[in-house]
Write a structure and sequence with these properties.
With about 80 residues, the chain is an all-beta fold. The chain is built from no helices and 6 strands. It has one domain.
Length: about 80
């Protein structure tokens, strides 16, 4: 049986800037069902900083360096996205 791969989306993802502190927060959901994914890994490889999503699929990374960053999201049974 072919392993079913479902891409998931990061919605409501944005950077907020306050007092020279850069933060990223958002919600990780299943692309098809739009159900939140609890325990997804959210990682910034260049900064070696990451977190996992809560039961409502939300995450937040605080005090990040300014500039563009690559965001990697992984979850068991899903295709990783960067």
């Amino acid at each position: 049986m072919i392993k079913k791969i479902i891409a998931f989306t990061a919605i409501m993802l944005w950077a907020s800037f306050a007092f020279s502190q850069n933060n990223i927060h958002g919600t990780i959901t299943d692309a098809k069902s739009e159900e939140p994914l609890e325990g997804a890994h959210v990682y910034l490889p260049e900064l070696k900083k990451g977190t996992t999503t809560g039961e409502d699929g939300t995450f937040e990374l605080k005090d990040l360096a300014a500039g563009s960053q690559r965001l990697q999201v992984t979850f068991i049974g899903y295709q990783s996205i960067v």
